[in-house]
């Protein structure tokens, strides 16, 4: 029974699909799917069910799974520690304002929330808008697996210097560095959603079908339907998402300032670019401003 050597823990909306696409030809991954969701919501199926996703692993390459939803779940961390105590972990930090807006769009796409604005959603669901809690959660992963076994990357680097970002990941995993130049499939807009669902009820039903297919390892069927445009038909085609207004951006940056400063202290990175309001707001598929490593980092 082989299990992953490295797990990408997210958080969600931090380039996990891009990383999966970049690595999938150089490491062993779950057959036909990025994320098995085992440590997220399918633990009841048992560790043998999880291991069956890696039955085709060659044994000559590291096994990697990208599970972006588990960063926020202490129980996921505990289960990984139980079953894979020597696992390495990759986490990617993203500007909390950009990430929360991207998560909002994703939740609408899945049909989990209604058509309210971001402000209305945050007001109605304080847990959603409460913050990303980067520093305390990241520190808990350090404690569980050892800081030397947790690679902390920055989403801004992925967007501005993707080759440099990927080099760091490859070095950490222990595979030969990959050249991005011949990879036109690695665009900047992977899983970037421009439109809301036309009908929330249909979007939610489509999401339940996707989850059912994943839970039964019917990944080829799910992929076939995706390529046929089925999921986009049910989960897209609605209104265009607006940009955040300068006022929204400023309010959110003030709200998340303490957690940005806590993360700065923890990983010794200058995150000034995450503190300043943007006018106009940087679009999701444009390059963010570069960050600088602190002198003592």
Provide the β-strand percentage band.
5-15%
User: What Rg is obtained from the alpha carbons, in whole angstroms?
Assistant: 19 Å
Going by helix content, strand content and strand pairing, the class is alpha/beta
Number of DSSP E strands = 8
Count every helix, treating DSSP H or I runs of 4 or more residues as helices.
14
The residue ranges in which pLDDT falls below 50 over 5 or more consecutive positions are 281-287, 289-297
* H and E order: EHHHEHEHHHHEHHEHHHEHEE
Summarize the amount of helix as a percent range: 40-55%
Strand order of the largest sheet: 2-1-3-4
Ends: how far apart?
39 Å
What does it look like?
The structure is a single chain. The N and C termini lie far apart (39 Å). This protein is α/β, with parallel strands linked by helices and 297 residues long. The protein has helices at residues 16-23, 38-41, 47-51, 74-83, 96-110, 118-124, 126-129, 134-145, 155-160, 162-173, 200-215, 219-227, 230-235, 246-267, and strands spanning 6-10, 64-66, 88-93, 150-154, 195-197, 237-240, 269-270, 292-293. The chain has 14 helices and 8 strands. The longest helix has 22 residues, at 246-267. The strands form 3 sheets. A 4-stranded parallel β-sheet has the order 2-1-3-4, sandwiched between helices. Helix 4 runs parallel beside helix 8 and helix 8 packs parallel to helix 14.
């Amino acid at each position: 029974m082989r299990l992953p050597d490295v797990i990408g823990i997210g958080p969600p909306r931090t380039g996990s699909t891009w990383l999966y696409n970049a690595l999938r030809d150089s490491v062993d991954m779950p057959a036909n799917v990025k994320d098995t969701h085992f440590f997220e919501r399918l633990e009841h199926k048992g560790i043998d069910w999880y291991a069956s996703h890696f039955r085709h692993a060659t044994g000559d390459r590291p096994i990697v799974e990208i599970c972006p939803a588990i960063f926020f779940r202490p129980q996921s961390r505990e289960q990984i520690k139980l079953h894979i105590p020597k696992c390495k972990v990759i986490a990617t930090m993203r500007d909390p304002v950009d990430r929360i807006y991207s998560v909002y769009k994703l939740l609408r796409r899945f049909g989990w929330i209604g058509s309210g604005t971001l402000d209305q959603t945050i007001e109605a669901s304080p847990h959603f808008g409460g913050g990303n809690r980067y520093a305390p959660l990241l520190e808990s992963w350090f404690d569980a697996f050892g800081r030397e076994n947790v690679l902390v990357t920055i989403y801004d680097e992925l967007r501005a210097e993707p080759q440099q970002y990927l080099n760091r990941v490859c070095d950490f995993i222990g595979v030969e560095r990959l050249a991005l130049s011949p990879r036109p499939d690695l665009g900047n807009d992977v899983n970037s959603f421009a439109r809301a669902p036309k009908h929330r009820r249909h979007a939610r039903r489509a999401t339940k079908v996707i989850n059912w297919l994943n839970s039964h390892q019917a990944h080829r069927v799910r992929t076939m339907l995706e390529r046929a445009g089925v999921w986009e038909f049910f989960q897209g085609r609605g209104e265009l998402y607006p940009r955040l207004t300068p006022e929204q951006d400023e309010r959110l940056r003030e709200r998340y300032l303490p957690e940005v400063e806590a993360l700065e202290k923890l990983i010794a990175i200058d995150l000034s670019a995450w503190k300043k309001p943007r006018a106009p707001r940087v679009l999701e598929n444009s390059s963010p401003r570069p960050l600088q490593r602190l002198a003592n980092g």
